[in-house]
Design a protein that fits this description.
The chain has two helices and two strands. By secondary structure, it is mostly helical. A two-stranded antiparallel sheet has the order 1-2. Strand 1 and strand 2 (39-41) form a beta hairpin. The longest helix is centred in the middle third of the chain and has 60 residues, at 43-102. 1% of the residues are buried.
């Protein structure tokens, strides 16, 4: 309750921030507890942590982009191979049809 904490610098109205107890679970070095058990967060120490997290995310995105590029290239290669196979099959089919046409006439009774 902000009314019980004197000198904490609370302003009236809606406040935005981190919950010190939640941050403490992950980064206890950013949280201080006073004699009365109230916790405060060192916001100035949060910035470097966030910057490093962003750098790590950027690296993950680069790796995913590279993987997507490799997969797209492999797919393109497979599509080209399939097109070549289809072309070869069409050519063979045409040759087979032409050969059957030259084989002579078929007599029917």
């Amino acid at each position: 309750d902000k009314d019980r904490v004197t000198g904490a610098g609370y302003k009236s109205g809606r406040q935005i921030g981190f919950v010190a107890q939640e941050v403490e679970k992950v980064l206890p070095e950013l949280v201080q507890t006073d004699r009365e058990g109230y916790k405060t967060l060192s916001y100035d120490k949060v910035v470097p942590v966030l910057v490093e997290a962003i750098k790590e995310q950027q690296e993950q995105l680069k790796e995913k982009d590279a993987r997507i590029e490799r997969l797209e290239k492999a797919l393109e290669d497979q599509q080209l191979a399939l097109m070549r196979q289809q072309s070869a099959l069409s050519s063979l089919s045409a040759r087979l049809a032409a050969d059957e046409g030259h084989a002579g006439t078929v007599a029917y009774k």
